[in-house]
Amino acid sequence: MKCLLAGTLACTLVLTVQGFYSSSDDVVELNPSNFNREVLQSDSLWLVEFYAPWCGHCQRLTPDWKKAATALKGIVKVGAVDADQHKTLGGQYGIRGFPTIKIFGANKNKPEDYQGGRTSQAIVDGAMNALRSLVKERLSGRTGGSDQSRQSGGSSGGGSKKDVVELTDDNFDQMVLNSEDVWMVEFFAPWCGHCKNLEPEWAAAATEVKEQTKGKVRLGAVDATVHQGLASRYGIRGFPTIKIFQKGEEPEDYDGGRTRSDIVARALDLFSANAPPPELLEILNEDILKKICEDYQLCVISVLPHILDTGAAGRNAYLEVVMKMAEKYKKKMWGWLWTEAGAQMELESSLGIGGFGYPAMAAINARKMKFALLKGSFSETGIHEFLRDLSMGRGSTASVGGGALPKIHTVEPWDGKDGELPVEDDIDLSDVELDDLGKDEL
């Protein structure tokens, strides 16, 4: 009999704590599926209680919350979130205790904490005060708006979002899945605090990644509360979630840091893994030098010994070393050039090479007209140390001689063969008296 009674009480307790609100109440039950539509996109003022069914304080608040909702019907919206069941939704608003009441007023993305009493009268008074503040703001012309899709407006962090691509149910397949480019896509919710913190970092990273990869890696964003089909397709359960899409491969989760530098670093890793090896071009004319040095952050120039000094095998060995380094540093998006010693003397002079010490290497920043010289050996190890220091902002630099890119002579491209000594004209010795050779004149 005691067991039966205990079971009955337990059932009654479960029914009580799980049945806080019903369809007959004026309290709107909110969850991740309807929160954006009901609250964030609404022009109404909302009071939202975040509760847990096992919470004794929540149970005691329930009748007053219902009574306040009825009194405010048609004036202020009153809702409730089971934050124990919908932990993600509660987490986005930093809910750490129960019950927590928040006021969603002029700026739905920045709700205020309700600090009043827990009686129905205190709740109604708090709601009316918030309502008066909302009306006053509207009269003064200031309104926060619902900001349904953050990517369509300005950034609260002050950064431009022009390079973050807004993705939707309609354009996602065409722009992302059918693209040859690599995509990093953020799935966000407008009400999500972590998403708001990420927003300026994501926008800044998008611009830097676009520039450094020439648009080969792109950053996009999906409002998962609006485009729920996409969110469901990729199993999005928390915000923000970032996924990486590469053509022909399954999407992978991004689990790196959330700062601009973290995002850029991962994007450049993706770019370098998919990018073709950079070209190593011979400096044949002025256009080649200007294009490479002006289009890239740095142009790395190798001055190789004359072909007569190395032969084809020796030159190819040097070129192979440079190509390995170009491949190693390809995510830096630098330009790579080479020339033969003596072919471009003005260039050598402007870089302080001066006709000796071949092979030599210099890296030019054409925007600043600064250059750095390789001081170590022309080997994989020596060049790697030189380029590593450059990439980390270390090493000494000097100004390019003349303050501008030097004059470049038009030359024929190397044919890949060994060099040949120049052929001199034959000398006719038929008129020379050989008997007179060696006689001293008195």
From TrEMBL:
Organism listed in the record: Megalops atlanticus (Tarpon)
Source domain of life: Eukaryota
Class of enzymatic activity (EC top level): isomerase
Any Gene Ontology biological process: response to endoplasmic reticulum stress
EC number: 5.3.4.1
Name of protein: Protein disulfide-isomerase A6
PROSITE patterns tied to this protein: THIOREDOXIN_1, THIOREDOXIN_2
CDD domains xref list: P5_C, PDI_a_P5
Residues annotated as signal peptide: 1-19
